[in-house]
Amino acid sequence: MAGFAGSVWVGFWMLAAMRRQWRADVGELYRVPYMAGHWYRFARWFYGTVIPSSVKPYGCELMIAGVSPFQHAFGFHSHALSMRAPDFTPNFIKPGGTWGSIGSGAKHNWAPHFADNNAFMTVFAHGEVMNPGGSAAMVAHSVAHTLEQEPMDSVSPIIQVGIIRAADHEIKILRRQHQGAWTIAQEEAVQTGQLITDWNSFRAAAGEAGLDAEAAVT
Asked: N or C: which end of the chain has fewer CB within 10 A?
């Protein structure tokens, strides 16, 4: 599973290039550290020679997460890393509840709180008890509440929660809603075809809305 921040055009093109280079299909298990250690050199070349200079000021940050085909005593190894233009050197996120951020949300006043490993393990990790993926939902609800208290213009009220397992994966779409003194992240049904996963789909959707897709930044 991968996401991006910065220029939408560049982000979709970098993820498409990654998928071609890795020959990756959704739902397959990959050795993420091994592939990232090789692919970042291609990403550096691709960004430096193929991506137009006109969109580079918008930046490009990538985050990749996956489950390894290799197991340990308690299950499968999980991996997450981030890359940033122009060098795309992999920044591996340590396992065990370590926080990793890309994009403007990483500059929010509450970002250090989420990055505090002790807070994560003592608060959010409890969501996993008898409920695999529960900690991700707890983080989403906490982020929704935080953004309600201190909103950021560059952060959408819609929150996507990606959960990766050895056998499957899911993406939950949550919308931030204010109810009285409380904020909740209400799950929102997204019909097939509404979740945009490539540049052509995004450009078509932006065109229908009368927007300039090439200028989009996330």
From this structure: N
